[in-house]
Amino acid sequence: MDVPASYWIETLQLEPHIEGGAYKSTYRSSFKLAMDSLPEGFSGERHICSSIYFLLQKGEFSAFHRLRSDEIWHFYFGDALVIYEICADGKVIEHKLGSNPNKGESFQCTIKAGNWLAAKVQSPGNYCLAGCTVSPGFDFADFELAKRSYLIQKFPNHKALIETLTIS
């Protein structure tokens, strides 16, 4: 079934995301965690869990960013998505989110809280519809969009990747 990205954008009412791509919040737990029960660095209570739809098209990317929470990415439809994770020790992990395990793709992957991540559609694909579940739940207070100069200074051996997947 050949379904264009525009179908999903319209049907799911996706909107532009600050990191790139398009998204829609789909769930936010009614249960909350008190600030004193969260790890250091959280500025207030958080929902236990939240989730979104996320769509990237060919030529777009999700710019390097990090959260204070773990992120579980889910594949839904389209072409494979490559998610780049830079760990605190500088190791880069390439997660392939997709539906073909024979090509090293998985339906899910997890990005550890505090690690930098960016994503793009695996070439020569057209788009990927994915989802992301965050726990503790997403709050923009816990979101940091990477500054290119900072990441290059911290991880100089990944300069080319960082230059390709940062906004500024």
Account of the 3D structure:
- It is built from 3 helices and 13 strands, in the order αβββββββββββββαα.
- The protein is mainly beta and 168 residues long.
- It has one domain (5-32, 44-164): Sandwich (Jelly Rolls).
- The chain starts with a helix and ends with a helix.
- The mean pLDDT is 97.
Describe the structure concisely:
This protein is mainly beta and 168 residues long. The protein has 3 helices and 13 strands. It has one domain (5-32, 44-164): Sandwich (Jelly Rolls).
Key features of this structure:
5-stranded antiparallel sheet, Jelly Rolls, mainly beta, 3 helices, 168 residues, globular
Q: What is the CATH C level class, in words?
A: Mainly Beta
Main sheet?
6 strands, antiparallel
Number of domains: 1
DSSP E strands, number: 13
CATH topology: Jelly Rolls
Number of helices: 3
Provide the spatial order of strands within the biggest beta sheet: 1-2-5-12-7-10
Q: Tell me the distance between the termini.
A: 38 Å
Estimated helix fraction? 10-25%
Structural class: mainly beta
Specify the CATH architecture.
Sandwich
**What is the CATH H-level superfamily?**
Jelly Rolls
The averaged pLDDT comes out at: 97
- Proportion of beta-strand residues: 35-45%
Order of helices and strands: HEEEEEEEEEEEEEHH
Gross morphology: globular
Cα gyration radius (Å): 16 Å
Low-confidence stretches: none
Present the secondary structure layout.
Layout lengths: L4 H7 L3 E2 L5 E7 L3 E2 L12 E2 L2 E8 L3 E7 L2 E9 L2 E6 L5 E6 L10 E4 L4 E6 L5 E9 L7 E3 L2 H7 L4 H6 L4
Antiparallel strand pairs: 1-2, 2-5, 3-4, 5-12, 6-11, 6-13, 7-10, 7-12, 8-9, 8-11
